[in-house]
Amino acid sequence: MRKVFATATEALADVLRDGMTILSGGFGLSGVPMSLIEAIRSSGVRDLTIVSNNAGTDGVGLGMLLESRQVRRMISSYVGENATFARQYLAGELEIEFNPQGTLAERIRAGGAGIPAFFTATGFGTAVAEGKEKREFDGRHFVMERGIVGDLAIVHAWKGDTEGNLVYRKTARNFNPIMATAARMTVAEVEHLVQPGDIDGDHVVTPGIFVKRIVVLDHVEKRIEQRTVRKRA
What we know:
Elements: E1 4-5, H1 8-12, E2 21-24, H2 34-43, E3 48-51, H3 63-67, E4 71-76, H4 83-90, E5 95-98, H5 101-112, E6 117-120, E7 134-137, E8 140-146, E9 152-161, E10 166-167, H6 176-181, E11 186-194, E12 213-216
Parallel strand pairs: 1-12, 2-3, 2-9, 3-4, 4-5, 9-11, 11-12
Antiparallel strand pairs: 6-8, 7-8, 9-10
């Protein structure tokens, strides 16, 4: 199977459709699959459900899809850095399903592991638990959460080989590994492409069996979401 594609647009050409569910790796602006998001925007697909820890920032990352109004619904944990998201949500133009961050991560991991649902104590007695099954185990109350499986997962990796084995770098690892396992089609953008055997097997984070297509980036712009510096002495 040929996994390496020349561009993000080519890799997604016969995959994208209106109304699909897309899992996007990244946390803030770290490890975000920017080129794949740009290709989704350029394709013009609409009514998307996006599963992501957050919504990027205005005009950057998933913020691009919000500005072009291609997103109908978001399943997220933290969206506080995007004013466009806030305006659309408050105007009733965007649906949102908020999740505690650990619950969101476990829902995605469960989906990738073939687990349809699980129970967690997080959120019991709050709005998060409304409309969900509750159970008591060993004297504690739990809420049932469903695993998440998407139509497409887009991820960013530091290094990958032509078989799709991926390695992530530092905090850019974040949600990418679990996203890669929890979709029917996973497309990865990589900063460095190597040959099979060039990555130590013990260092592989995402095995190539999960990755169907790969795009090699010719340029990577690593933005800083919030710059914090000390005053000069």
